[in-house]
User: What shape does this take?
Amino acid sequence: MQILKQPLFHFILIGVAIFAWFAWVSPQQDVAEEADTITIDGNDVALLKTRFQNSWNRPPTEDELQALIDGAIREEVLVREARKLGLDQGDQVIRARLAQKMDFLTDAIAASIEPEPEMLQTFLNENPERFTKPAQIAFDQIYLNENADPDAIESAIEAANTQQDWSSIGSTTLLPKSMPLTVVRVVDANFGTGFSAALNSLEPGNWSGPVRSAFGIHVVRVTDKQDPILPKLEDIRDTVLLEWRREAGSDLAQAQYESLASNYQVETPDVDKAVE
Assistant: This one.
């Protein structure tokens, strides 16, 4: 009975119903086409008008609407005649498009489901790495040079700790003198791999060093740190819902495919012989 409570089981039931409905109506569509009658009804016209409105931000004129209807009829005539000639058979573009439409059906099913808050909370708890905000660090830095000696480092630290304006201390560089709270990977992207790890060992508030970057030696003052944090569900609900639906859609697509594939007997050549 536990399976009846699983969301994926409900998705599969919905998916089976939708695919069955398409299979049921398809033969009727084929019969209608064989009658050589092309009907453009009110729904078709409304769809043409909506597409025009979305593209041009205005409704079509009478002449433009007539041109749209004529274009739809022309397309239908050519499609039917192409099918009679078998031009849709073996066409990789058409095959890929049809397979894509089948995937769109399962995506639409997943997107239509509104999970209970408890379900999203469970998903968040089971996948914290997807939603955890990474560690951040803020700091000021004074660049010395590539080979600063211990005396120069101590002198820079003393001057920075005693002077209110420390911006003129050290050598000229294009590196930012101050970084606000920044994700550690971004810090490393600017200063070189491992720079953020060296900052992590420093106590905030005082200038200290040396800290080596990819460019040379620095003295640094850490001004703030923020550990990795997993936000509450209510703060990131939309993000969690998007990820939940993406995973549910993937699971549904695979389950639906396996269900459909079970209706076929699949024969394939021997792989070893096929590559010879």
